[in-house]
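Q: How would the structure tokens look for this protein?
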Amino acid sequence: MPIKVVISWAAGAWKSTIIQEIVKKLGYETADIWQVFRARAIAKELTIAEYDKLVEQHPEEDRELENEFKETVEWSEKDIIVSWRMWFHCLPKIFSIRLDVEPEEGARRVFKQDRGEQEKKYNSVEEALQANQNRMKRLQERLLKVYDVDFMDKTNYDKIISTDWQTLEENVEAVISAIQEHEKTLK
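A: Here is the predicted structure in token form.
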């Protein structure tokens, strides 16, 4: 039986980087709903922020994203690791890991990143912090409307890992360890 893992949480928690490292180390396949989200934004000639606002006004977009992405994950016959905040709800059999990060640390990481031309480059850590907080609040409100579930509730996750005081490599190892412990429960 394939292992299916979801990693989620806020900007700056190193989700994407950790997932990339796990793919390299464990050979998992990966799928990221934000890649689909970005592709839809590009197709509509919108920035991520503009498309995010469009999705807020049209909740059916969330369901379309979910359905398109859900099939990929559900039917995968290989070990797969994905990123999205609602998979603990949409696919209850998936092992869900939440990567926590203090808001200020997440903002520092986002400020340092080159997030491409489709996402805003912030002028300061404070600007990144404010943008992250606003985005999380809007996302929480939107997903509560669509799913009637609060993705910020820590009880929704199988494992919570703080990324604040460890190196990236230590966080990768912590996630791998959690996945391996989960795998033992399946045997």
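The longest strand covers residues 95-100.

The chain has one domain: 4-185.

Upvote if useful.
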